[in-house]
Fold this protein.
Amino acid sequence: MTLGNFTIIFSLLLIILQIIILRKNFKLENILQIPVSIVFGYFIDFTMYLLVWINPQHYFIKLIALIIGCIVLGFGVYIEILADVVMLPGESFVRAIVQTWNTNFGTTKIIFNSSSHICFQKIIKMRFLNLKLLLLLKLQTTKMLSLSADNMAAAVMT
């Protein structure tokens, strides 16, 4: 699964959550988030393909790339909200929370981004842990089969 595909799936989940949160206040025009999300997901994959040659090795250069990425992303979100057109589901979901519970957009967006990051990090760790457990189980099974084969060989020899 590519990052773009994951983004599309996560965007669809956020649209469903918006429908649940907003109920009657969910406008039909918000359905336009679906094609926008699909195009955005494929654009992410295309951009990653174009920028595959960028692979900074030094920590300082990685930090500079991160700062530039945050500035570009922040400016893009600012323009998206200022234009008040079809938003990507990440911002539209936060807007649904802000409208429903009267919270501050900036604070809510930071909390949403942080909690999403923590959740995905936990999921990745659990998946890695499951993979580690699977490898351990396979290793133990191989050892047991090897011991059984040795025992059978010894039994046949005697």
